[in-house]
Amino acid sequence: MMTLYGRRGWGSVLIEAQLAYYDLPFRFEEVDDLFTSASARKALARINPLAQVPTLLLDDGRVLTESAAITLHLADLTGRDDLVPGADAPERAAFLRWLVFLVTNLYPTFTYADEPTRFVADATAAKAFRARVDDYAQSLWRMVEHAAAAPWFLGERRSALDLYIGVMTRWRPRRPWFLAEAPKLHAIAQAIDAEPAFAGTLARNFAE
């Protein structure tokens, strides 16, 4: 059985939702707040030196990190192409482009700005840094909005990109901003919320 190290509402929800979707057996190991707990970071660093979630311990003992890598691995493991277009699918190139865009460009804006004092010691400068990063993130989201089709990001075909959008739009700048500034992404997020295959995982992670 695989073990997913994560925290409710954090990036691990992206992988938790896919494991549940594929009906793969796994154990969820909840970690303490990695921003505030040195002991939690030290414990997770024994498995993943970056001490980040998601961290997936495969059933043969190997460690897999980075949500995009895990997303591709789970599709290969199950032999399915309903979340990851196959190598010959016409949507494959766009899928890979925007999956990597989300995780290499947008995801780091949370890494750096969720707790900016980790990188900028002065409190006033840290506040300004967070504001600048958030503005930059919004400019990136506008690029994603421009590329999005309907009803799903790739058009008629639902993919893991839609799950990423459904989860990441719950973080800053949050859904009201997307409704006003990125309506296609907002519609995709709402559609993912309504998908029975993901509803349980999302409810567990984002319960008020």
TrEMBL record:
User: PROSITE patterns under this entry?
Assistant: GST_CTER, GST_NTER
Domain (GST C-terminal): residue spans on this chain: 88-208
What keywords would UniProt list here?
A: Transferase
Give the signal peptide as a residue range, or say none if absent: none
Boundaries of each GST N-terminal domain copy?
A: 1-82
Q: Does the keyword Transferase apply?
A: yes
List, alphabetically, the InterPro entries matched. Glutathione-S-Trfase_C-like, Glutathione-S-Trfase_C_sf, Glutathione_S-Trfase, Glutathione_S-Trfase_N, Thioredoxin-like_sf
* GO molecular function terms noted in the UniProt entry: transferase activity
Instruction: Note the PANTHER family from the entry.
Output: GLUTATHIONE S-TRANSFERASE GSTA, GLUTATHIONE S-TRANSFERASE-RELATED
Name-wise, this protein is Glutathione S-transferase, N-terminal domain
Q: Which organism is it from?
A: Dokdonella koreensis DS-123
